Amino acid sequence: MSKILQITQAKPNPAGKDKAGNIPKPEQLLAEWVNIKNIGTEAVPFSTISLSHTLFDQNCRNTNRTEVYWTGGSDSLQPNKVIRIQTGNFKDKHLINPSDDIGNDWNSFANKDNFVLNNRCGDTITVAWT
To answer: Which of left, alpha, beta for 91 (phi over 0: left; psi -120 to 50: alpha)?
Structure first.
């Protein structure tokens, strides 16, 4: 028996990653996402999973710090299933583009009002679980 998770896909730069009046559009926030797949043989409770990314300063220097931007809730990720963590808000889920809802078994939301993944400096995404 094993609990093994893997980041299988990420979409850090959705098409038209623009801001309308300095406020990201909800549908764009929902189009920034990370897929995590359970490649192990046992279920992993969502409550034990977290997703983090690297923080940079204004000159794109790595600060050697990370930020946890999503932690799971109830239920479990079964073997061979994929959860998609979308940067946007749960309340806006009706705005998910159908192309951003393919290839996953679950959707979860970081409930952020700004983009998380750093396109200008690059980024490192890390999944952790216990």
So the answer is: alpha
Residue 17 has pLDDT above 70, yes or no: no
Angle formed at CA 29 by CA 6 and CA 125, multiple of 5 degrees: 30
Going by DSSP bridges, is the β-strand pair 106-109/82-86 parallel, antiparallel, or unpaired? Answer: parallel
> What's the whole-number mean pLDDT along residues 58-62?
93
Top CATH class, 5-129: mainly beta
CA distance 58 to 62: 10
Tokens encoding 4: 């093994």
Cα angle 54, 130, 121 (rounded to 5 degrees) comes to 10
Report domain extents, the chain: 5-129
Q: What value does the mean pLDDT take over residues 40-62?
A: 95
**Chain Cα centroid distance, residue 61:** 22
Structure pTM?
Answer: 0.92
3-state SS assignment for residue 38: strand
